[in-house]
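Morning F.,

Quick status update on the modeling queue. The single chain you submitted on Monday has been processed. Sequence for confirmation:
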Amino acid sequence: MKFTAEQIAGILDGTVVGNPDTEVSKLSKIEEGEKGALTFLANPKYTSYIYSTKASIAIVNNSFKPEQEVSCTLIKVEDAYKSFSKLLEYYNQVKLNKSGIEQPVYLSDSISKGENIYIGAFTYIGNNVKIGENVKIFPNSYIGDNVVIGDNSVIFSGSKIYSETIIGKHCVINSGAIIGADGFGFAPNENGEYTKVPQIGNVILEDFVDIGAATTIDRATLGSTIIRKGVKLDNQIQIAHNVEIGKNTVIAAQTGIAGSTKIGENCQIGGQVGIVGHITIGNNVKIQAQSGIGRNVKDNEVLQGSPALSYGDYNKSYVYFKNLPKLVKTINDLEKQNNGNN
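Structure tokens below.
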């Protein structure tokens, strides 16, 4: 799909400097620009590339004044970075703008569906599923019985949404995610064997939740596993049964959260963090990557390490840890000196 400089300027409320009929059909970094590509200049460190790039169109700030000849057409805007991000979002919408029901698919006769939906080939949709308006379900997806999918949500290929799951509006579930599988519930009997504890709850995703590829969220034993509004989960995260994650919390890849833990609002959790079950983590908490959390955490704490310490205590302790070989050598030298004096 091709766009002219004039069309792009219209989308971004910008001003064209150069040929308004210049066309582009792809996006590129400014240092890798080629003919037919659109790029942008926001970071002053990359200014030199504006004079050498082969891109056809470049988005720049209104304040940009070229010091030498620029070969590409410019689009001047208030904020080049934000404008390029807006254009990426627009491009993504155009790219994903599919509608209709492909064949073959299986759709239960009892489903209800809104206007302008897309259901990709080889998708299975079970009984009593409710699909909102503008929902897109890409090929090879599984939607179990009694699932609710809110307006404008997108479910990418290969996702598995188990029965009773409720998905809010404007949610994104990436490929390979599994929402609503059984929680890890087993009870030992008198023979030391483990018996499965039925998991009869569900998962609730509120509005504007993003779920990364291959992330798994288990259904509750009773009640609901709840992911609140605006939560963003990276790839390959494990959320256990009856966990609750507060609104606008972000969690990086390979983090694991054990059952019944409650995480507050606006938290930032790094990659490969392990969090035990049945604890409460407050609001605005920051947890550094590869930390292990085994206790309740108060609002606004910043933690690092395994088991995690406060960020300041961890850094102070690490200074001593780095110097342990020197400290051991000093002690050994002192002991030798003391033995020699004796």
